[in-house]
Design a protein that fits this description.
3-stranded antiparallel beta sheet; about 25% strand; alpha/beta; about 25% helix; 9-stranded mixed beta sheet
């Protein structure tokens, strides 16, 4: 079992130990953990300007916010953000460079070059709006909306498998009828996360597909909207004092990426095999068909263990040399949680350990 620790809320050094209590029989059991409330939430779309479900959903949320202005407020505020407006206007993934790779401390804080990429400039604007990253002033929760051309359904993507806020939100969204959900964990170990959602104290990407880039499909948009609504419902319940029971969460952890076969000129020589296409999260066994060359030959998976493929044939990843990603599935134990009361919050002086300090 993966050891679960805390890094993204006050009293992180003691929260895990206080959650674990020994019974008379010597077993360790988890007790309810009290975490700070989430008074400020950001929902971001258009980080990639041609992934249109998030673009149109943010615009819809902005419209709804104007229509409900003056009504009774929830237990938190929601900030809707179109992250890369110029790319959205041109319906491009990005203008100069991938915005979702521009949120390391080094990029955000080092001196700008003479002619900085457009996305490097707006990453600093977004850090000022949602952060600063790694500070107590950062947004409490950042949800970044994305589309994939792969047949992945609705997924949570996180660089942490020990952020109990995000994992409890994921469990809550699993209650949406007839919408399978997966939690994808990108293990960056000691490296720092570079994505937009890393600017907040808690953050995740909500990825949904299949949808071609540059178009919007009603069923995909509706599923994303349901996911965001359920996420906001959970935040309200959490802030209002609801206790969320602990348990097991299935997590897919990235193992490796596989590129397409290529010739000496670096041109691809094969496509995803028809038996694998659109079968994201279906177990891939050694010797299963993996690619089909343009001459018709079947190339088989030469791995040493069965793994779960995802991002199969994602169109944006051709440039990155990724035909598909492979993951292992495991279970992570999370504790019951509830929001701190006002008295408990006053008793804990806010402190936040950034990834840079770890």
């Amino acid at each position: 079992m993966h050891h679960v620790t805390l890094r993204t809320h006050p009293a992180s050094d003691t929260a895990w130990h206080s959650a674990m209590q020994r019974t008379r029989g010597g077993r360790e059991t988890m007790e309810t953990v009290c975490l700070p409330r989430l008074p400020r939430v950001a929902v971001c779309g258009g980080t990639h300007g041609n992934e249109l479900s998030g673009v149109y959903l943010v615009r819809e949320l902005l419209k709804e916010q104007k229509e409900t202005s003056g009504k009774e407020k929830e237990s938190f505020s929601v900030l809707e953000v179109l992250a890369n407006p110029k790319a959205v206007q041109r319906c491009l993934r990005y203008i100069d460079t991938d915005l979702n790779r521009c949120f390391t401390h080094a990029i955000l804080n080092r001196p700008l070059p003479d002619k900085p990429p457009y996305e490097m400039l707006i990453s600093r604007d977004l850090n000022a709006l949602l952060g600063p990253k790694g500070s107590c002033e950062a947004m409490d929760l950042v949800c970044d909306l994305h589309n994939t051309t792969s047949n992945m359904g609705l997924c949570f993507i996180s660089y942490s498998d020990c952020d109990w806020i995000c994992m409890h939100i994921f469990r809550h969204l699993q209650q949406i009828p007839d919408i399978p959900m997966r939690y994808i964990h990108f293990d960056i170990s000691s490296k720092e996360s570079y994505s937009l959602d890393s600017v907040g104290k808690h953050g995740f990407a909500m990825e949904i597909g299949p949808q071609p880039h540059g178009v919007v499909r009603s069923n995909i948009f509706t599923t994303m909207k349901l996911g965001v609504q359920h996420m906001l419902d959970w935040v309200h319940l959490f802030n209002s004092g609801t206790i969320f029971e602990g348990g097991l969460v299935e997590v897919y952890t990235l193992v490796k990426n596989i590129d397409y076969p290529r010739d000496e000129t670096h041109n691809i020589t094969a496509a995803i095999h028809p038996q694998l296409q659109d079968r994201d999260f279906c177990l891939l066994h050694p010797e299963d068909p993996l690619f089909q060359t343009f001459s018709g030959e079947t190339l088989r998976f030469k791995g040493k263990e069965p793994l779960y493929p995802f991002f199969i044939n994602e169109s944006a990843y051709y440039k990155k040399g990724i035909a598909l990603s492979l993951a292992r599935k495991r279970c992570v134990t999370i504790p019951a949680i509830r929001a701190q009361t006002e008295q408990e919050e006053q008793a804990h002086e806010p402190e936040f350990t950034s990834e840079e300090e770890e």
